[in-house]
Structure formats: C-alpha cells, structure tokens
Specification:
single chain; 413 residues; alpha+beta; 5-stranded antiparallel beta sheet; 14 helices
C-alpha cells in the first residue's frame, strides 16, 4: 500500500473527465492522479461508458454537478409527465432518489434522513444515542487509523466500507498480521469502518412502511452468516424467510428493528436490516438500508406470502396502505449454488433425485445451463444458480433447503 490513505491509484494510468482540456474537471483529475493521462469526454454518460469498456481506467466527476444534471433532466420530464413517487433499488442511488423527491415535492425520505442509511458511522452514532446496542466501531480514511482502531477494539474484528452494500469488501481479521494482509485489498475504498466482531447467528428484519409504521414485517435467517458464505467457495448459502416471527427466539431482533426505524426517523418505503443473536439471547444491531434486500431475497419473501411485495411497496409509498393484507403462509428459502471447478458448466448431479423427493416444495429454479461459463463467485451473490423452496413447517423447510445445499452439485471444467 502506498502512502497513508486507503485508496490507491497504482493501476490508473488513463483517467477520464467531462469537458474540454483545461476544464476544472481536468485539473481535479490531475490533482487526484498526477501521473495519469487525462482524456476528456463530452457527456457524463460517455465517461461512464468509457470506464465500462475499459477505454479508461478511472474517471473523476463532480458528483454534485452530475446529480444536479440528473435532477434537472427529471424536472424537465416532470413538466409533461406526472411522477407519483421516486424510489431506489440500489444503494448508490439512495441520495439521488432523496434529492429527486425533494425537488419534485414528493413525500418520503429527505436527503438528511437518508444519509444515516448510507453512512454506517452516522447510522451507528444515531443508534448509540438511542441506546441500541451496536458493535463497537471506529471509522477512518487512514491506514494508521485502521491500525489504531484495531488496537483499541481488539481481535477478532471486522473491516468494511463505510458506505458499502451487503458483504462486499468485508473482512474478518483475527490478528495484526491478518490486518496487514487485508489493508492492500481496501485500496479502492475511501473510508472504512473498523468494528467489533459479533460471534452470533445472523438474521434480517425487513419492512414495508407507510406513515412511519410497518405495514409488513419479514425476518430471514442466514445459514451460514454472509461473512462465512463469502469466505468459503464450497458453501451453498441459504436465506430462509420465517413464517412465524412472533416466536421468542427472534422477538428481541424484531423489537430492536422497530426501535431502529424510530431512531432513524424512517417514514415510508422498503427497509432491509441485519442483526445478530448471540447464544445467550442478546441481540446486536448490524446495519440497515432503506431499500429492498438483494440477492433475490424479495423473491423468497414473495414465495413465503404468495404476494407481490414490489407492488405492495409501490402501494405503500403512493397510497399509504396495501390494497389487501399480506400473510406469511410458508417458510421459504433460497439456496445459491456454486459450481466445482473452473471454466464451463459440464454437468449437474443430484437434481432429478431431489425433484422426485421434494418436487412439490420447489417454487422456482434458475441454474446455469450446460455449456455456460461459470460466474466469479466472489463478484456475484447469485453465483451459478439458485433454487427456491418452501414448506409450512419450519423443520421440513430447513431439511429441504439443506438437501439442495449438499446434494445438488454443479461441475465446471
């Protein structure tokens, strides 16, 4: 790692900007990457395309200007089209959606209300002030700051981006030597959170809200927890939506989830929270986003309820109520599959036997066909395929999901 900052520009030799040579954007590019060759483009979209096609290695853009341009374009569209609401599915566009709502005079989360959902440090400070148990945490932009935080918090610990999504670029660190090995992997991250590692089971608390109150609540059980699933290639991660969320085992997480929504002032929309349950029953907050969960978890929730929760989300933010009740009828699970070996999918074993035994419980299946190139399991949560199952009985659903996790095998070569 070069210098004191986390971010490194070692591989960025060609940097793009929007504008003509000599523009402020080119000056900013050279200030950030003084050894790079700068290339100007006429529009922001052309810059994005150049990054995607690897015509350039990186881009320096004035964020406020680019967001402002999008807001202005939407405002022009609104002159001739009625816009009921603006929502976002994607973590990086949460703030943009809030700015659009403010500009259009629409109800919903403001920029100020959205910021704590994007910045994990702001989030945890607000919850600390509300008396909600969070992992001990420190944010920093400096390598020295990471080392100091680790010394203060102690090992094991977690290092992750301050504005990340899911478990991307998230690392468990068990020693100072492991920390030194992880630091180079965070060169692309501007600011990280160094946190206490919570040794516990991991669950979600998901809601669709209107008027500051949940209209629908869901709880999923991660098996195993995502940090483990993202560390071991042979694991088939299972996400299981629970039919009965009134049981004592998850009551603490549900109560904490409601308290988190109140503390952060959430009003209307979809939320996705992750939390930990320790062996002694204590619950600890993980993080929360004001968007639906990813990795097709909403599909799991839909199979659990026989409802279209994307439609219910739209109803909540435009009408303030559901057109009909949503009931959890089943326990439902997704099982993500990763092929063994590299190259192209050559064969799929165990599927016909599993379908003979559990076919009535299978809701949907999306496996890469024979001959398809295997996906990079570190870059996608869906990997090489996914199976959805459900059953009214929890233990039966667990058994079925575990069988698909262990007995369904994809091979690449």
């Amino acid at each position: 790692m070069e210098g004191d900052h986390l971010i490194s520009s070692v591989a960025w030799s060609r940097v793009g900007y929007q504008g003509e040579p000599g523009a402020y954007s080119e000056e900013a590019s050279l200030a950030a990457l003084p050894d790079a060759t700068t290339i100007g483009f006429p529009t922001f979209s052309r810059v994005f395309d150049a990054v995607a096609s690897r015509e350039i290695d990186a881009a320096v853009l004035p964020v406020e200007n680019s967001l402002g341009g999008i807001v202005q374009e939407v405002m022009r569209l609104a002159e001739n089209s009625h816009i009921d609401q603006v929502e976002s599915l994607w973590e990086p566009t949460m703030i943009l959606a809030a700015r659009l709502r403010e500009a259009l005079g629409l109800a919903g989360m403001t920029v100020a209300q959205t910021l704590p959902f994007r910045d994990k440090e702001l989030m945890k400070r607000a919850l600390d002030a509300a008396g909600i148990r969070t992992p001990y945490h420190v944010s920093t932009t400096e390598v020295a700051g990471v080392r100091e935080a680790a010394a203060r918090i102690g090992y094991p610990l977690i290092v992750k981006p301050i504005a990340g999504a899911g478990s991307a670029s998230t690392f468990r660190v068990d020693s100072s030597q492991e920390l030194e090995n992880v630091l180079p992997l965070l060169r692309h991250v501007n600011e990280v959170s160094v946190e206490e590692f919570i040794d516990a089971e991991e669950f979600t608390y998901d809601t669709i809200c209107a008027g500051g109150e949940p209209l629908f609540e869901n709880m999923c059980w991660y098996r195993p927890r995502p940090l483990v699933a993202r560390s071991l290639e042979w694991v088939s991660p299972v996400t299981l939506a629970l039919r009965d969320i009134d049981v004592d085992y998850v009551a603490g997480g549900r109560s904490m989830g409601r308290a988190v929504l109140k503390a952060l002032g959430f009003t209307a929309g979809f939320t996705h929270m992750e939390w930990y349950r320790r062996p002694n029953g204590d619950v600890v907050f993980g993080e929360i986003a004001c968007r639906p969960p990813g990795a097709r978890t909403v599909d799991v929730m839909n199979f659990s309820t026989d409802a279209d929760l994307f439609q219910r989300w739209a109803e909540a933010v435009t009408r303030g109520a559901f057109s009909e009740p949503v009931r959890r009828t089943y326990n439902a699970a997704s099982i993500t599959k990763r092929a063994e070996g590299q190259g192209h999918i050559r064969r799929i074993d165990g599927l016909s036997h599993l379908l003979t035994e559990y076919g009535d419980a299978v809701c949907a299946m999306d496996l890469l066909p024979i001959g398809s190139p295997r996906r990079d399991w570190m870059q996608t949560l869906l990997s090489d395929g996914i199976v959805f199952v459900r059953h009214a009985d929890l233990q039966s659903c667990i058994e079925i999901a575990d069988r698909f996790a262990t007995d369904l095998r994809l091979y690449a070569g």
